[in-house]
């Protein structure tokens, strides 16, 4: 059974959505990807959608939408995208905070930098799960 990973932030409209997409793209052999937040946005950030389409040729709006924490299944790993104020809490066996700046309202370059950082972190996460460096045994 592949572990379930939730990428969470407050609005589930930008970084966590990019992470869900890139998790499916680069980590699907190792884990299942979900994203959610404590608040919903009516749509995914347009700049995030454009960046993922330009870099990876994937249209996030076709399969993803803004979700609340209670909209996703129970997960094994929680990845906080980096919320400076109040980060949502979700029970899990492993939690990390990737501390990524929110690129919302910033330049195209910032969005590309964020997407590339997420890609690297996803590949690293998949590697660490595969190598059993993350303890997912029930405590």
UniProtKB/TrEMBL annotation:
Signal peptide: none annotated. It holds the Pfam family LMWPc. Residues 3-128 form the Phosphotyrosine protein phosphatase I domain. This is Arsenate reductase ArsC. InterPro entries: Ptyr_pPase (IPR023485).
């Amino acid at each position: 059974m592949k572990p379930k990973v939730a990428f969470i932030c407050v609005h589930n409209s930008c970084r966590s959505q990019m992470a869900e997409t890139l998790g499916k793209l680069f980590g699907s052999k190792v884990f299942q990807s979900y994203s959610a937040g404590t608040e919903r946005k009516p749509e995914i950030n347009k700049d995030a959608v454009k960046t993922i389409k330009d870099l990876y040729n994937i249209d996030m709006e076709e399969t993803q939408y803004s979700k609340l924490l209670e909209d996703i299944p129970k997960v094994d790993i929680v990845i906080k995208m980096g919320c400076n104020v109040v980060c949502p809490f979700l029970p899990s066996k492993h939690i990390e905070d990737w501390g990524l700046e929110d690129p919302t309202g910033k330049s195209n370059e910032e969005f590309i930098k964020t997407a590339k950082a997420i890609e690297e972190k996803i590949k690293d996460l998949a590697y660490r799960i595969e190598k059993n460096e993350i303890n997912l045994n029930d405590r």
